[in-house]
Amino acid sequence: MTVWEELKARGLIAQVTDEDEIKEMVNNGKATFYIGFDPTADSLHVGHFMALCLMKRLQMAGNRPIALLGGGTGMIGDPSGRTDMRQMMTKETIQHNIDCFKKQMSRFIDFSDGKALMVNNADWLLNLNYVDLLRDVGAHFSVNRMLTAECYKQRMERGLSFLEFNYMIMQSYDFYMLYQKYGCNMQFGGDDQWSNMLGGTELIRRKLGKDAYAMTITLLLNSEGKKMGKTQSGAVWLDPNKTSPFDFYQYWRNVDDADVIKCMRLLTFLPLEQIDEMATWEGSQLNKAKEILAYELTNLVHGEEEAKKAQEGARALFSGGADTAHMPSTELTDEDFTEDDTIDLITMLIKAGLVPTRSEGRRAIEQGGVSIDGEKITDIKHTVAKDSLAGDGVVLKRGKKKFNKVFVK
């Protein structure tokens, strides 16, 4: 099976500009391609993870990836897929986020000996002369056509700022610069980037008379059509300090039955034959498939040791075992207790990160969704003695899937 055939079989490919040409280059390791990453936070998240996996697959086949960090475009903000304008960030925040991205990307992509490049578009965007840009680049863009782009259409009713309207031109200019500087002949990205990517291929054709290509990858959506990688408490991050390896493992362990095989194809490097076999599994076997998915992805992001710890911790909890060593845990301090050395259950839930507010904690208890060491607690005034939290502490659980070991030294 060729690289291209595998990408198609895994369901990764959404739209392409010239399939025959892209297929030929990718299969023969001739593609120098880029994917852009705007530094909107201090960690990459699950959405980025899918793009990194694609880069890794193509690099393994001899192609050269360019990770383009958006030090310039991050000053504007991409309107694609958003209902409101992004919060403006300072240059210092953007640089800090870029530094965080660099460390995380190096876990996936081999940047040694020119096998891949990491480039910052601030190098050319921040010093542009506005009038020169209007004359050299703006003349090649039709406002009528830009307004038909999906990324703009969905914002027209709520209001699209002129700042954001320029984003397509900046992203197109990136492709144009990368083509000239590094021979970058392809751009890959999420399917919501299609209009922006076409803008780049068109600019290269008009300015240089050359062909460049674009391909979008399937967005990571669940069976209900919603973006995956989001939880009630926010995004699923690749930074272990923002989403612990255990919580990362649990996110994938708890995906819907309808999504597990799709995630396996899109995100893991397991052979397709093995995944196809798992696609025939039913009932309790699907839980085994989810365990495999969670382990594989945690291993990719956090390494084998953390993946094993997360797996052992989850198994211990769900089997009723006593081994809580690898569970997420919260250490309470003396200040957390009242004068009579007790702590109320709602405060414990908040400290453990199982609820965001006291009202939600109260509701969870009243609905019978909270337990301590397997014993359901329905009294919202329930308190726990400090002595009972010494040593291994207790396992505090909310619902079927959220739990935390709470202890005091």
Tell me what the structure shows.
By secondary structure, this protein is of the alpha/beta class. The chain folds into 3 domains: 217 residues, Rossmann fold; 86 residues, Tyrosyl-Transfer RNA Synthetase; 80 residues, Structural Genomics Hypothetical 15.5 Kd Protein In mrcA-pckA Intergenic Region, Chain A. It is built from 18 helices and 15 strands. The strands form 4 sheets. The protein has a 6-stranded mixed sheet with strand order 1-6-5-2-3-4, with helices on both faces. Helix 11 links the parallel strand 5 and strand 6. The mean pLDDT is 87.
Strand content: 5-15%
Main β-sheet description: 6 strands, mixed
User: Could you say what the CATH topology of the largest domain is called?
Assistant: Rossmann fold
Write down the overall mean pLDDT: 87
How many structural domains are formed by the residues? Answer: 3
CATH top level assignment of the largest domain? Alpha Beta
Number of extended strands = 15
Instruction: Give the helix proportion (percent range).
Output: 40-55%
Q: SS-based structural class? A: alpha/beta
Radius of gyration: 24 Å
Secondary structure: elements and pairs:
Blueprint: H1 3-9, E1 13-16, H2 19-27, E2 32-37, H3 46-60, E3 64-69, H4 91-105, E4 117-120, H5 122-125, H6 130-136, H7 143-146, H8 150-156, H9 162-165, H10 167-182, E5 186-190, H11 194-208, E6 213-217, E7 230-231, E8 234-235, H12 245-253, H13 260-267, H14 272-278, H15 284-302, H16 304-318, E9 329-332, E10 342-344, H17 345-351, H18 358-366, E11 370-372, E12 375-376, E13 383-385, E14 394-398, E15 402-408
Parallel strand pairs: 2-3, 2-5, 3-4, 5-6, 9-15
Antiparallel strand pairs: 1-6, 7-8, 10-13, 11-12, 11-14, 14-15
Helix pairs in contact: 10-11, 12-15, 12-16, 13-15, 15-16, 17-18
